[in-house]
Amino acid sequence: MDDDRLLIRPMTLADCDRVAEIRVRGWQSAYQDLIPRSYLDAMSVTRDAERHRTRFVQGDGSVVNLVAEWDGEVRGWACHGPYRDGEVRTADAELYAVYVDPRHYGRGIGNALLLEALWNRTALGHDRMYLWVLRDNSRARRFYERAGFAADGTEEPFEADGVPVPEGRYVRALGT
To answer: How far apart are CA 16 and CA 35, in angstroms?
Structure first.
């Protein structure tokens, strides 16, 4: 990866449309064999962008959205904040999302976003970071395992158009 071409920065309101495009296209690419096509086809960049704008404007600052620019174009997005145990926030951190424009996989963009999120949450004094990943998403599981995350055996149900696609929880110690 040519680090001179990559910039990780806080997301702005102006980035919401591009972030929504990356997220929706990321789902449609990464989950094409894991989630029913009907569910993926029903995803809307416009609706997702509106959701991002609403959360961005109404946020309390505890959730951090980052974007990765490659040659001046937003090509990736990550979001992290306090760990959510149901609706209750805990003292641990959670990586809510890392998505890269599918046309730019393999350039280290996702790894750079993940490292920035880990650094940020470590600097804030969190001891652990959790994340949820579709149990059958072997590519994502390998990505997180290479970054020091490990499955802790906790699973959570998720359903897409009536089809169960369970998620597994991963954890990594911070500051070590």
So the answer is: 24
CA 82 to chain centre: 14
148: phi then psi, degrees, rounded to nearest 5: 95, 5
User: 39-73: b or e for each residue (b if 16 or more CB lie within 10 Å)?
Assistant: bbeebebeebbeebeeebeeeeeeebbbbbbbeee
The answer to whether the beta carbons of residues 161 and 36 sit under 8 Å apart is yes
Q: Whole-angstrom Cα distance, residue 23 to residue 30?
A: 10
**What's the one-letter identity of residue 151?**
A
Per-residue pLDDT tens for 112-142?
Answer: 999 999 999 999 999 999 999 999 999 999 9
Amino acid at 98: V
C-alpha–C-alpha distance, residues 114 and 122, integer Å: 12
Rg (C-alpha) for the chain, rounded Å, is 16
Cβ(64)–Cβ(79) under 8 Å? Answer: yes
CA distance linking residue 5 with residue 172, whole number of Å: 29
The strand pair at 167-173 and 128-134 is best described as antiparallel
Query: In the numeric block, which tokens belong to residue 49?
Result: 């962008």
Q: What is the pTM of this model?
A: 0.91
